[in-house]
Amino acid sequence: MTSRFPALSMNTVATRVHAVRMGRRLRLLSCLGALLVPVACAAPSHTVPVPAPTARTTPAARTPALPLALRWMRRSAEYRALTRQTYAVAAARLDDTVPTLTGVAWGVILDADETLLDNSEYQRRRAVLDSAYTEASWAEWVKEVAAPAVPGAVAFTRRVRRLGGRVIVVTNRADALCGPTRANLRRVGVPADLVLCQPPGQPDKNPRFRAVERGTASTDLPALRIVEWIGDNIQDFPGLTQAVRHDPSAFRAFGRTFFVLPNPVYGSWQGNAGP
């Protein structure tokens, strides 16, 4: 049978054999070079997977932000201005009233918490935890005797004493906490003549108000004409509750004999319904 391929000379065959051998050598050199340079030799290259970022240590939990109302009480200039303003107005009214009280035993009744004593540090501690009031945590705070005075309170109470009046504190702190309450008032410089705490199960202050006026609250004090009441809760004033908030006539005594301090953090107002 006749071959389909033309006859090749010996020189041609030798040349082709040499070319094949050279090709193999070049490929071998290329693959050896891949050990030093990332060049693909036999198989197509693949993208090297990037390791997942190492998980970072979870940062420490941030301290919760304080409620705006508490931040306002603790940090604002306005709060300090308002408390001083309230006490200044109350003092000015005394200057008008006292000259008419010749021969009369008189006094002023004040609440303690957020009126004389600033408990915003207790509120801050609770906000950092869970914002929940507990009797145990409150008792611990009171026993620290660490509450500072509300701005303006000390100067006002000392003025009452200089003018010949008595400083009466009617508070709904429990009777069991009255000892450290008196100590805290002394520590900040409030010259209290009498501190009446809450008898068990009797949060209404009105019976204690009447006892002071009748002279039955303490054997050390006579019946007193109370010329001013100062507090941060509507219930710190005789006969008033949150029910009067829509009755303009109920507020006529404010600025005359009743003086209220700002407390947007807590109070009887929390039970009011509405938007």
What's the quick description here?
The protein is of the alpha/beta class and 275 residues long. It has helices spanning 10-33, 68-75, 77-97, 120-129, 135-144, 153-162, 178-188, 206-214, and strands at residues 106-110, 166-174, 194-198, 225-231, 258-260.
Main sheet: strand order: 3-2-1-4-5
CATH architecture designation of the domain at 94-269: 3-Layer(aba) Sandwich
The shape, in one word, is globular
- Write the CATH homologous superfamily of the domain at 94-269: HAD superfamily/HAD-like
Overall description:
There is one protein chain. By secondary structure, the chain is an alpha/beta fold. It has a domain at 94-269: Rossmann fold. It is 37% helix and 11% strand. It has eight helices and five strands; from the N terminus they run αααβαααβαβαββ. A five-stranded parallel sheet has the order 3-2-1-4-5, sandwiched between helices. β2, α7 (178-188) and β3 (194-198) form a beta-alpha-beta unit. α2 crosses α3 and α3 runs parallel beside α6. The longest helix has 24 residues, at 10-33. It is globular, with a radius of gyration of 42 Å. The N and C termini lie far apart (110 Å).
